[in-house]
Amino acid sequence: MDAPETVHRGFANRETKLKGAMYLLGIDIGTSGVKALLIDTAGRVVASASESYPLYTPQPLWAEQDPDDWWNATCKVIRRVLADSGVAAFEIRGVGLSGQMHGSVFLDENGESIRPALLWCDQRTAAECAWITERVGERKVLETTLNPVLTGFQAGKIIWLRRHEPENYARVKQVLLPKDFIRYRLTGASATEVSDASGTALFDVPRRDWAYEMLNALELPRAWFPKVYESPEITGRITAQAAQATGLAEGTPVVGGAGDQAAGAVGVGVVQAGRASVSIGTSGVVFAHLDAPQVDAQYRTHTFCHAVPGAWHVMGVMLMAGGALQWYRDTFMPQESFDTALAEAEAVSPSSEGLLFLPYLSGERTPHADPKARGAFVGATLAHGRGHFTRAVLEGVAYGLRDSLEILREMGLSLHQLRLTGGGAKSPLWRQILADVFGQPVHTLQAEEGPAFGVALLAGVGTGVWNSVPEACAQTVRLADSTEPNPAHQPLYEAGYAQYRQLYPALKPFF
């Protein structure tokens, strides 16, 4: 009897320590790498660490990653923040998970990945998405998921596997989203939460549960899909094996967390009506809080469950935003820094003297939902230099984001405060271009740490540090600077945006 009693006492001691813990850990499984962020219960950053991993493109328009790369990188960054902060593992009260949305991780009966994960930016599934829509019925799909079935979403990837890799499909026992694979490795629990599940095209967004009729119609086993939680709910606890791999304390709670966009919105306080965030990472997103589900009549935007229990959000997504600038710099200025590129762009007048850039380098979602859309520079003359092309990229992304903002305005949303997030928000030039193109002020945060900060706050809500997500944001999120639109620039950008909107229909026949 001694051994079981000792084990029980040890777990009870860990529980007592965790209840008094004063730190929260957020982990974000991004496309380019994983980030771990440790904060205290006042929202101050104690330590952070990042680790990159490769992206594989075995064919044009394909995008894959190895889930084991995510796990190995996650173990490294957790150990690094623990070492750098000097915080003991038992002082971490809870863990929150965020990650790139829509990806498909296929696990076998042993919980091992069967093949590389298909990512959000993978565009191979157009035929499968059309088949799903026909099989289920377009009206049923839209009423249930509040979104069309898009190539980036998870549903098409599952059907693609069934059609093209039947031997792998036959081995599938679980289908997880990227962050939920990390949850599985940390806790042993097959679980997800409402915001990320909303982007699978297999989720009943108004009811906040799996769309079981759709699963049946597509002949997909219900057992493959994880249990669904609200974002702040505890979904599992760190196992002994995961504790050994990461340095975390066994028994530490792990909450649902959120998809990267909902997590980022929590991290910048977009948790009430009237607020929206504009994110410029690899992709670009305009994100607004909803107190009730609401859709664009043409379904050009996505309506998903928010990480705030009982709330939803609407967002427009462009697939290449900061990614377009990265591509441009790497391709045409490989020896130059981003600072050099931006300085050259700043010397160019607004609207780039008529040079326009269409940023559809990997297809597009909002507003066109066209995986075949392509990028283009239009209007080049001998008078245009490198700085013009760089500025045209910045302006093209701003115009693409305005497309989403205009749709939200058409839906009747009053967005009185726009909060900028992501790497692009760090550029004063890009902030000014955005304010000028949007025609309203944009705001930055005193500390903007992205989705990892948002899910650290969710971990605090789930473990009792705060009573609600809005309360957590009110106590930890602070505005910093505001960038006002320049009245002298706005006529140029209004004319430029009108021209930009003509590019896609004019060029579509060539795609």
Task: List the keywords.
single chain; 511 residues; alpha+beta; seven-stranded mixed sheet; five-stranded mixed sheet; 18 helices; 39% helix; 20% strand; globular; disordered N terminus
Overall average pLDDT: 94
Which structural class matches the secondary elements?
alpha+beta
**Count of individual helical segments:** 18
Largest sheet: 7 strands, mixed
Write a structural description.
With 511 residues, this protein is an alpha+beta fold. It is 39% helix and 20% strand. The protein is built from 18 helices and 24 strands. The strands form eight sheets. The chain has a seven-stranded mixed β-sheet. Strand 2 and strand 3 form a beta hairpin. Helix 12 (322-332) runs antiparallel to helix 14 and helix 14 (386-410) crosses helix 15 (428-438). The chain starts with a helix and ends with a helix. 54% of the residues are buried. The model is unreliable at 1-13 (pLDDT under 50).
What can be said about this structure in brief?
This protein is of the alpha+beta class. The chain has 18 helices and 24 strands. Helix content is 39%, strand content 20%.
Write the layout of secondary structure elements.
Elements (H helix, E strand, L loop, with lengths): L1 H18 L3 E7 L3 E8 L4 E8 L11 E2 L1 H19 L6 E8 L5 E3 L9 E2 L7 H11 L1 H8 L8 H11 L1 H4 L4 E3 L1 H10 L3 E3 H4 L5 E2 L4 E2 L1 H6 L9 E3 L4 E4 L2 H7 L6 E3 L2 E2 H8 L7 E6 L3 E7 L11 E4 L6 E7 L3 H11 L5 H9 L9 E3 L17 E3 L7 H25 L6 E5 L6 H11 L3 E4 L5 H12 L6 H8 L2 E5 L6 H18 L4
Parallel strand pairs: 1-5, 5-15, 9-12, 16-22, 22-23
Antiparallel strand pairs: 1-2, 2-3, 4-7, 6-8, 10-11, 13-14, 16-17, 17-19, 18-19, 20-21, 23-24
